[in-house]
Amino acid sequence: MVTKEYHCLADILVRNNFGTLGATVVGVIGNHDILKKICERFDVPFSLISYADGVNDPEEEMIDQINAYSPDYVILAKFMRILSPRFVASFADRIINIHHSFLPAFAGANPYKQAFERGVKLIGATAHFVTNDLDEGPIIAQQIIPVNHSFTAKDMVRSGKEIETAVLAKAMRLVLSDRVFVYKNKTVVFEN
After folding, report:
1. Active site residue 43
2. pTM of this structure
3. Average per-residue pLDDT for the chain
């Protein structure tokens, strides 16, 4: 599932194309059509399910579409919407999100702006299972990189996108090779 940012989806589609993902991407759902063309280039079905019309329940449509694909996991590759408890329960312990911050610090929106304003010396990304508590699900993988006073907020965003892509790929590799087990609100991860 995607919104507008391409970097995580593009990485997943390239890995899928070359058979190095460890799974098969069966479809992409976006709440904007911006990423439709990249999916077409990789011959992966794209479904637009917008929140804008206000008539239909987009989550009900997404649940139906995902169930039609019958996937093992749902990957939020920068899907920038809060999901309802009903949606999360439909795919319990099967939704993986990438958060553009080293959780638990700077949860929610605009973490790079928050990090820049606080003068942090490290930025990172966290891949986690989605729960009803925003950005507090069991953590699968994390990574950090050093930054300093010379980094602007824009520099942090650019570096953050690279680390988000790497952390999501690592989390997917671990989960797809059955190396992650959820216990309460933690994970046991077998990395080797």
Report:
1. no
2. 0.90
3. 91
